[in-house]
Amino acid sequence: MSHYNGITRTALAAALTAALAAPAFGQDSGSKDTKDATAIKTVVVTGTRAFNRTEADSMAPIDVLTPTDLKDTGAANLATALRTLLPSFNFPQPSVTDATDATQPAQLRGLSPDETLVLINGKRQHTTSIVNVNGSLGRGSSPVDINAIPINAIDHIEVLRDGAAAQYGSDAIAGVINIILKGGAEHGSVNVTRGQWDGGDGDTWQGGADGGFNLGSKGWVHLSANYTKQDPTNRAGPDTRYPGDPTYGQVTFHYGLPETKAKQGAINFQYDLTDHAQLYGFSLFNKRDVHAGGFFRSLSTYADSYPGAAATYPNGYLPIENSSIRDDSEVLGIRGEASGWHYDVSANTGGNHWKLNTSNTYNYSLDPDSPTGFYIGTLTNRDKLLNADFSKNVDMGLSSPVTVAWGLEYRHQSFTIKQGDAASYAGAGAQVYPGYTPEDAGTHNRHDTAEYVDLEGDVTYNFSAGLAVRHERYSDFGNTTSWKASGRYAFNDTLALRGTVSTGFRAPSLQQEYYSSTAINFVSGADGQLVPYTVRTFPVDDPAAQALGAQALKPEKSHNYSAGLVFTPLNGLYATLDFYRIDIDNRIILSGNLVGTDVQNYLTSVGIPFVSGGRFFTNAIDTRTDGVDLVASYPIHFTGSTLKLTGGFNHNATSIQKIAANPPQLGLNGLTLPIIDRTEQGRVTDGSPKSKTFLSANWSVGNWQIHGQATRYGQWTSYGSTSASDQTYAARYLLDASVAYHMDDWTFTVGGNDINNAYPEKSSDANNYHGILPYPSSSPFGFSGAYYYVTAALHW
Fold this sequence. Notes:
By secondary structure, the protein is mainly beta. It has twelve helices and 35 strands.
């Protein structure tokens, strides 16, 4: 691909250096987590329906992460751990972004967070009900809440870095993350961690336990529980907006990680009904409470107009958003073998419930009788699935039998908005987050059915191939068909070439079709500074939205291409190099904030007062993403010790190939607006680093284990409404280190992440909101500085 001619010599050198390493790969629960020549022979179940496909001979790139890999990161949640371990995984931690503070999205291969499919034990996981509508990565998406899954319930994770819609259906454009839960009755653990961030804030306590028991001689149950309490961090600068204000020069904002409490649990079980039939199931539960601040309201902004507010808050006030999040997943199925066919029939239900209350706030429209706290409303979504999967090895006269797989799926989805209390949406609504109105409220449903066929086998001793086709019918937009062709050719036992070509799709979510709300957003003005607007997010079928250019949503359509090399010499080195291209047509994004006097006058004329702007979802752009992944691992065995080197490199670039023209109805209403403004365009193309490199080492000697990792995050750019407020942030290096001591069944660990206390480059005067928000919210590693922790764990 000619695109890579521009990669600098420095990046190439880093990539070659990273060939010494890669994310470690999975073992059975309870086994020693070593990376040697046999580890890459572990059978994988993601991206294949063959019975014996291993990670090393997979036809598409796949990484397998073990519990030890997750533990070595020192991360308090799963998304942070994946950011550390996967070179193409990006997880910024934005602040002052409303609901996004509570459920922070992540992305794979530079694409939208909702273009990655997440599975639990191979079963589709539901998305969050929250819609990310503010200016952060994943704006407009409602992805899976990865942090709802307890780390200590995980046996291993398989990450397929390839399009797989033909195998799994909607959303699998960037890849698939398959989380395999711990099982069995033999193993268990108890652990407790205490951590703290730079500056002495963000105290973190985390404790967890897991273990199992037998169900007679035919089955087992494995239970996991986890609790996390994290105090907030704050990196806000002093507020110097209003000289003479009682809080002038003080730190009035909260800008950092929010206060969080999370309770999580998991149950995984199986029971042999007969010698050829097995009952299985699992359930996960997550309850998380998050308290995050909005923009501080200074006394000078309301004292003259709202005397009741001035009497209530004589020194200004910081509104607090109190999110209560509940997730649950339940799966029950029967699998076994009959007449030579392996079958798996299952029922799956799961959902997300987000309830928002605000405190320490005010509704100026009710002055002087406004409450100071409001119930804003509730969002819920629910998925229900029925799956029937069948597979069988069939002798077709080739080098080995061909795995023939086919299956059926029925899926029902619902999305509900419940209105807030009347005071929350009266007039202009409560400050920081006006309540959901009766017009917003409602329940929306759809269903779809799918059928697939999947063939995979060794055509010759050296050549393997696969073909998958999937057809789906959605009740709201019709039919779609996807296919995928894969191949792998082994030149010898050391070197193999692999590649895939596929089409894919992502159905517009119910949230994108029907979400409706009014919020107070701070939009970048002509001078780059943030200006408050009351912006309404319209459903695409709203007449006002259609007058502004909204149209019925279509599914995204993708074409994925990948080609790579697998290097497995006998000395234990394992390295893969994969190039990829992902073209997406009709990509669904949230339009820019359409604001200004003309928009406000138009909305008032159609019966929508108190609103100064609007936005809606649209299939407005076609994009192309080109990238390369290099991952590897190399164990070195010494007398009495082992050194395992791991690492990876990703270079990724997205360009906009086409922007749909503004619809003609805008002109009929006298409006000329860019539906996709330059800020949104920049977020898609340059909002995350184009490169990321890491190198890590694990040295095990006697009872000691010493771990270290260096990670380089490449530069990224934040776009403003004009080029004068654009800013490119410099690359940064982060160092992580830990020392663990094993004593019998106990392990004691002391460690730190970002021990060099690297912060992102500070934002310029045009982007730091009067110096109050000094760091970019888009930073790929956050902006809280170093994190230190100690852990004690018991394993059996």
